[in-house]
Amino acid sequence: LSGVKVSLSIPADLGRLPEATEIALFRIIQEALSNVEKHAKAKRVAITPEIDLEMLRVTITDNGIGFDMETVLRDPEKWDHFGIKGILERARLVGGEGRVESKKGQGTRIVVEVPLADRTKREDEHHGEN
Fold first, then answer.
1. pLDDT, tens digit, 9 for 90 and up, residues 23-49
2. In the chain, where do the E strands start and end?
3. Single pTM value for the model
4. Spatial contact of 100 and 110, defined as CB atoms under 8 Å apart
5. Rounded CA gap, 49 and 92, in Å?
6. Which of 25, 31, 48, 112, by CA, is between 20 and 30 Å from 55?
7. In which residue ranges of the chain is pLDDT below 70?
8. Beta-strand pair 5-8/97-102
9. Predicted local confidence at residue 124, as pLDDT
10. Looking only at Cα atoms, what is the longest distance across the chain?
11. pLDDT of 130
């Protein structure tokens, strides 16, 4: 991103996720960063993954100009243009959910939560092989 400081801190115990989940999260983050570059006029973006029981939560927060959610929610063209629809659909495709929070002048926050149940099952199966 041109001139935008991006920070990312990945939990050491995250490990690998199912391939479909990894790809979906990569595309979600890619779309969010693209939105920041095109629309937000942000100076900073923080990408923060957190593990919470059997859920992975990825929060993407920028300090940009934000937008009025009510206006975007009422206008399907803006909803598609900002890539919000695609972000939420990708989360749902891997059994998760997402939400977008934004206010004019206060930046934007995208939160995506995906289940880690498949990862736990795969780790248990792997340990059982030894």
1. 999 999 999 999 999 889 999 999 999
2. 5-8, 44-52, 55-62, 97-102, 108-115
3. 0.84
4. yes
5. 17
6. 31
7. 1, 79, 81, 117-130
8. unpaired
9. 47
10. 56
11. 46
Q: Tokens for 41, please give them.
A: 């006029």
What DSSP state is assigned to residue 39? I
Token output for 42: 């942000």
Torsion of CA 67, 68, 74, 76, to 10 degrees: 0
Token pair recorded at residue 127: 């340990």
Give the total residue count for the chain: 130
Residue 28, Cβ density class (10 Å: 0-12 exposed, 13-18 middle, ≥19 buried): buried
Give CA separation, 36 vs 17, 22, 92, 124, in Å.
26, 21, 22, 39
The whole-number pLDDT of residue 1 equals 60
